[in-house]
Design goal:
alpha+beta; MetI-like fold; Jelly Rolls; transmembrane; ABC transporter permease; membrane
Length: 443
């Protein structure tokens, strides 16, 4: 252990090692923060999508992208009836409820969508509601009426009759200045959606949420299912680090122990290990994983087990064997045998620790290779469908033609995190190689 501790102290001489350590520390800290603030079960539930994301826009860019570009794209506004001045006019057998949903709009661009979510409580008779849209210059648009179920979603943007009347999609036509036929411009000011509802029971209630969807959202944007990509980017860190670390530990430690056992026992044991290694070397890892994912399971833990199993008899056994052969003939090994040390003690206590300093750089640089392997499988559509990972984000972007539609953030964000992870471990690994490898120490 003393050579290892002394070598770690020498890392301060290499700025690249310090930068790599800072990157790795930031990734580990973010991973811990993510697991604590967004527990595993909650992350899976969020990634499944559904109604939890209904207030988010579809394919919205990150806010910082719009600020860098100097734009003024709108953000999502939620106007709730709980904040509105509601009027009640009772009559025999019921009452009339007037709910004005007012908001200010000051952006040059148009919103991406308009939805109205209604929740009503009643015993037998459904309420009836009539919708009217009022613009800042006094124009009114009748949006129609309907009876309400207990949970109702009115997609104003998908009202084809309204689109024909306006001559353009509703979320543009309802905000456009009058007279602008070719290139419409948004009319700034105070808008209002008025709900005139008729309820037929005293205890009946109506709650409404008007969502004016923006074109930018959060730090990472959203995808085609309205999911906040920040969830996947954050949870991709612990998944990537866990997969890379477990795969590196499993393959490296097991390979080293098997190589040391083959060197010590020799004979047919060493011969069998070498033949298995030679057969395993010619097996292509990625096609085998593709076959497993296609025919058996795409679970990330199944893939991890296959990676470790195929990595046990890797080419590293040849390298470790060449390093351990001279150690087997060392005088202190003979001394250990003389005072009665057992085979397991000699292998684990006297042989393996001698090459651990050389093993550390290899172990560190192996981690990002397994991180990229997991991302590659997910990008090919063989990733775990229930886990939010960087590769799964890029696979969704590829499926939805994100680059073709100009959603560059969808691809660049996970790709940048993958590159940053690889850079951090590579910078630390190369510095460790200089510290622990005598041939590189003087370079």
């Amino acid at each position: 252990m003393r050579p290892i501790l002394e070598g770690l102290r020498q890392l301060a001489r290499y700025p690249s090692a310090l930068v790599g350590l800072l990157i790795i520390a930031a990734l580990v800290g973010t991973a811990v923060f993510t697991v604590v603030t967004i527990p595993y079960g909650q992350a899976l539930e969020l990634w499944r999508g559904g109604e939890v994301w209904r207030m988010h826009p579809v394919n919205a860019r990150p806010v910082w992208v719009d600020r860098i570009a100097g734009g003024d794209l709108p953000r999502t506004q939620v106007i709730s009836s709980r904040d509105a001045a509601i009027d009640h006019e009772p009559f025999e057998g019921g009452s009339r409820v007037r709910i004005p949903l007012e908001f200010d709009y000051a952006h040059k661009g148009f919103p991406s969508e308009l939805n109205l979510f209604l929740t009503s409580e009643f015993a037998e008779r459904e309420p009836f509601v009539r919708l009217t849209w009022e613009t800042p210059d006094g124009r009114e648009f009748i949006l129609g009426g309907r009876r309400l179920a207990r949970d109702e979603r009115i997609s104003i943007s998908q009202d084809w009759g309204l689109e024909r009347r306006l001559g353009r999609v509703p979320h543009v036509g309802l905000f456009a200045e009058p007279g602008a036929e070719d290139v419409p411009e948004a009319l700034p000011g105070r808008y209002r959606l008025v709900l005139d509802a008729i309820v037929f029971e005293e205890q009946a209630t109506i709650d409404a949420d008007l969502v004016v969807y923006g074109r930018v959202h959060g730090l990472a944007g959203t995808d085609h299912q309205r999911r906040d990509l920040m969830v996947a980017l954050l949870w991709g860190i612990p998944v990537a680090l866990a997969f890379g670390l477990l795969a590196a530990v499993g393959t490296t430690v097991t390979t080293l122990v098997i190589a040391a056992a083959g060197v010590w026992y020799g004979g047919w044991v060493d011969a069998v290990i070498q033949r298995l290694t030679e057969v395993n070397i010619i097996l292509p890892l990625l096609p085998v994983l593709v076959m497993v994912g296609t025919l058996y399971s795409t679970s990330i833990w199944v893939m991890l087990g296959v990676v470790i199993a195929l990595g046990i008899f890797s080419a590293g056994i040849k390298m470790y064997r060449a390093m351990l052969l001279p150690i087997r003939e060392a005088p202190y090994i003979e001394a250990a045998r003389a005072y009665g040390a057992g085979n397991a003690r000699i292998v684990l206590r006297y042989m393996i620790p001698r090459i651990l300093p050389v093993l550390i750089p290899t172990f560190v640089t192996l981690i990002p290779s397994f991180v990229f392997l997991e991302a590659s499988l997910a990008l090919l559509g063989l990733g775990d469908p229930v886990l939010p990972t960087w590769g799964k984000v890029m696979n969704d972007a590829q499926t939805q033609s994100a680059l073709y539609h100009g959603f560059y953030y969808w691809v660049l964000s996970p790709a940048a995190l993958l590159m940053l992870t690889g850079l951090g471990f590579a910078m630390l690994g190369f510095a460790l190689d200089r510290v622990f490898n005598p041939r590189l120490r003087a370079m």
